[in-house]
Amino acid sequence: MNAEVIATFGRHLLLRDAAGETLMARPQGRSHDIVCGDRVRCDRVGSETVVVAVLPRATALRRTSLRARSEPMAANLTQLAIVVAPLPAPDLFVLDRFISAAECAGLAVLIVCNKSELPEHAGLRALLQPYRVLEYALCDISAAQAAADPALLEPLRAALAGHTTVFVGQSGVGKSSLTRLLTDDPAEIAIGALVKDEEGRHTTTASRLYECGAARIIDSPGVRDYAPAIDDLAPSTLGFREVAALAAGCRFLDCRHLQEPHCAVRAAVEQGTMDARRYESYRRLRRLYDRLWERRPAAERAARRR
After folding, report:
1. Using an 8 Å Cβ cutoff, are 108 and 78 in contact?
2. C-alpha angle 88/90/95, rounded to 5°?
3. How far apart are the C-alpha atoms of 220 and 84, rounded to whole Å?
4. What is the pTM of this model?
5. How far apart are the C-alpha atoms of 143 and 146, rounded to whole Å?
6. What is the pLDDT of residues 186-245, one digit of tens each?
7. How far apart are CA 208 and CA 79, in angstroms?
């Protein structure tokens, strides 16, 4: 039979079959590359359900592992929602890396600004102004207030409708709180998948897919850092929308927008028409991209240059 992976717990998988029933399964062999959102083929082996194949993915969000290899985080998505909040303080460089991954994977981008009830929210809105200029979708929300007044969720519901969206972001920004409010059955969120971190906050330890009316949401564990899969990034722009728009004006077709002469990207930064912090984010990702490629075998590096 075929089924969809709706949760992953190490080598344990929770599947939903075509009839809507859920069942536990395990992957065949030693494969660990099965993720939430995957569509899989299963067999019965004795009393167990075993996943024997992963069906082709339409899209995937991937990251770079410590060994400089690409590994999937979620599959068959249409949208990436990066949840930020005034507290904990947002890391905009991590935000940029998630956006780069989404751009290169062909996913819509939604920036969800949670905890809008806090006085620090005005400062967060100012920090996010460059993303509004770039026409990224932003949605202000307060999970705390929406718990008492569900009507406050409507703008977020509208932004999620028709999409399979993965929620990503730092620990403590409220991804699971929002998912709990949005899902059709809040009891589905397994308490066993939540633990407390060192500061006493509840945090998700396993990815899980939820049906939320007209939307589907994958809630993922919080991150401190994120490196996009280097195999997926566009080599010339790294998924930076404004760099892609400016690059045609560079003198050299292979301009890396770092030190090359007559670079339209650096000129835009100097003239104030490209955000300087976003450009610094591009520079950091460019250096990381190069370092990670240098860790790949020589044959792979040579094939990349062809």
Report:
1. yes
2. 140
3. 14
4. 0.91
5. 5
6. 545 543 444 444 444 544 557 899 999 999 999 998 888 999 999 999 999 999 999 999
7. 16
The CA distance from 238 to 135, in Å, is 18
Place of tokens 């030693």: 30
CB atoms within 10 A of CB 222: 20
Residues 6+ apart with CB under 8 A from 178: 83, 112, 114, 141, 143, 156, 167
Question: Alpha helix locations (H) across the chain?
Answer: 92-105, 121-127, 129-133, 143-148, 154-160, 175-182, 241-246, 264-271, 276-294, 298-305
Q: What is the DSSP letter of 191?
A: G
Tokens of 72: 């999937």
The maximal CA–CA distance of the chain, rounded, in angstroms, is 68
Q: What's the token pair of residue 255? A: 């301009």
Structure tokens at 5: 């992976």
